[in-house]
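Schema walk-through. Below, the input block comes first and the output block second. Nothing else is stored per chain. Lengths vary across the set, and this one has 254 residues.
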Amino acid sequence: MTNGSTGSFPAAALDWLAPAEPGTVLAIGRPSAVTANRLAERGNTVLLSDKSGSAVRAVRRRYPSLQTVAAAPDALPFVPCCFHQLLVAQGLHLLPSSLVLDEFARVLAPGGQLAVLHTARDDSVPWVRRLAKILQEYDPDAMTGGAELYSVAAIAASPHFPVVEHRSFRLWTPITRDGLLEMVSSAPRLSVLEQPEADHLLGEVGRLYDTSARAPEPLLLPYSVLCWRAVVDHSELSAAIRTGDEGFGITFPW
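--- output ---
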């Protein structure tokens, strides 16, 4: 469950992720479009790739400064070593990590950088913890996200990205009482509650808001902007193949 507003993206996060000098950037997936557009505004030449043609067309309409192409992330239609940076925002956990990391390394130029971004809700704030407790009475899995962050471990395990750096930046997003109620009622499992249960849930959430906010100021929903970057190592891709005197041995299953 996420808030519809993205708030003011921390400039320090983009400063840390952006290439040191303007260059060519490949952004993977429609969720990367917002960050990709910010990189384009900094003078980078940015191409966004998504395997869905409709997603590519939507990005092209929304961000005309971005070049786009429909392609699978594990079969990119580019020559080797043609991008200075490869960006994945909010979607690494949806990709087949071992295949895409090989492909990312192939299209990155020597010294090129893989940049990964994920914005996650920060549940360390007391009122957010109380909200989670309320919602989990109706949906035990509510506000328990974070499994997608484990996908980042695959980067460090890849021989193509041996050193991974990590930074976290705080993002505060204002949310009104109506906005919080809408966010809760639109969550997939909560949206199908029977009317008495839904009314009781929204009543509890409304009371939480009223006792936590300092009117007329809205509550601030906290997020952590989690960033990773890793410089590509091509040694595994360019290593010579040694077969020995007897060549390859192949065993057939029949």
